[in-house]
Amino acid sequence: MTAGETRTAIRVGGDAGYDVVVGRGVVAELGDALGAAVRKVLVVHAPTLGARAAELREELGDRFEVLLAEVPDAEAGKRIEVAAFCWQILGQADFTRSDAIVGLGGGAITDLAGFVAGTWLRGVRAVQVPTTVLGMVDAAVGGKTGINTNEGKNLVGVFHAPAAVLCDLELLDTLPRNEILAGFAEIVKAGFIRYPEILDIIEADPEVATDPTSPEFRRVVELAIRMKADVVSEDFTEQGLREILNYGHTLGHAVEHAERYQWRHGAAISVGMAFAAELGRLSGRLSDEVADRHKRVLDLLGLPTSYPAGRWNTLLATMQRDKKARGGQLRFIVLDDLAKPTVMQAPDQSLLFAAYQEIGS
Ligand SMILES: NC(=O)c1ccc[n+]([C@@H]2O[C@H](COP(=O)([O-])OP(=O)(O)OC[C@H]3O[C@@H](n4cnc5c(N)ncnc54)[C@H](O)[C@@H]3O)[C@@H](O)[C@H]2O)c1
Ligand SMILES: O=C(O)C(=O)C[C@@H](O)[C@H](O)[C@H](O)COP(=O)(O)O
Ligand SMILES: [Zn+2]
């Protein structure tokens, strides 16, 4: 970091937990985050981050034996065959329990790298270096890892907390605008379920989303990370509270599946939040003002809030496999008010359908 730049450390899980470090240049802390006990490091990265991964190998080379695993980009990387490819590298290089894995990439890569770290020898050290907004504010934080199956999104995974998360804002300099905006869907989620200040900032000037160097950008990123850090500190394995992080995800994951993962996660979650707002409104719990605010904020960011009306049956069939379902009954996260998320148990299909009609295009 250069003089005058600040570094923020957000703690997850108290004394025995880890820091999520935010700032420009903080990837320079990777060696220390890996720690003195580690000998070998596997950096799992997408092709986009190949040059940066090679630089890291150079930078860390005098302290560690660094191997690189280039894996397919985005959701194509979140497959069991890709995890097996990484396990093979680890096996052939004799990785032991005192070695470590680094996830360098967007949320898909940190989900995969976390899964590999959580399963290799039943769990080795993972340090996450997210390179997308979405990875920084959500995916790399909290130790939820996962891969997809033919039947649905994230159906296989383990909870495996990282040893550190380094959110280097400089890495966002190369991130395309549409990826930045997709990441903002999870920031908006944090606004609705915990910190409405985020919504105020975006409404005051939606352009903050496209300037990673602005103080407002930094503020909303840190608020979203704080929200996630607090929730997962209280409920790491999603016994209750953590379910609120799934706001917009029940329908959103079904949209991703229906689109064969050609939609960005953030875009699908945006549609899912628009649906959750209608569910809140039509069930009589959420005011028109807060429900309408969803579409307004998401529109300001150019994120989608509708989906073809004729796709309901397809989405409903996929939603039956949602992890929040209990005994065959769907459960949705909805809002009673701003920053008051709650679980809606087994809503009538007629209510779900009516809410979907409101976002149907
Ligand atoms: N585990 C969790 O708690 C959690 C939370 C939220 C989302 N997720 C998962 O995260 C995934 C979505 O993550 P995402 O939105 O980061 O998408 P992504 O990982 O697919 O990355 C998006 C694109 O950005 C490119 N990219 C990444 N960093 C770049 C950079 N610095 N410069 C240029 N290009 C770059 C990638 O190559 C990719 O093409 C989904 O699979 C979702 O399920 C997990
Ligand atoms: O961390 C969590 O918990 C979340 O639900 C965060 C979500 O944004 C994320 O997309 C997560 O991967 C969804 O998890 P899933 O259990 O619904 O697959
Ligand atoms: Zn998500």
UniProtKB/TrEMBL annotation:
Residues 70-180 form the 3-dehydroquinate synthase N-terminal domain. Pathway: Metabolic intermediate biosynthesis; chorismate biosynthesis; chorismate from D-erythrose 4-phosphate and phosphoenolpyruvate: step 2/7. The keyword Metal-binding applies. Its EC number is 4.2.3.4. It comes from the Bacteria. Pfam families: DHQ_synthase, DHQS_C. Binds 1 divalent metal cation per subunit. Can use either Co(2+) or Zn(2+). It catalyses: 7-phospho-2-dehydro-3-deoxy-D-arabino-heptonate = 3-dehydroquinate + phosphate. It is found in: Cytoplasm. Catalyzes the conversion of 3-deoxy-D-arabino-heptulosonate 7-phosphate (DAHP) to dehydroquinate (DHQ). This is 3-dehydroquinate synthase.
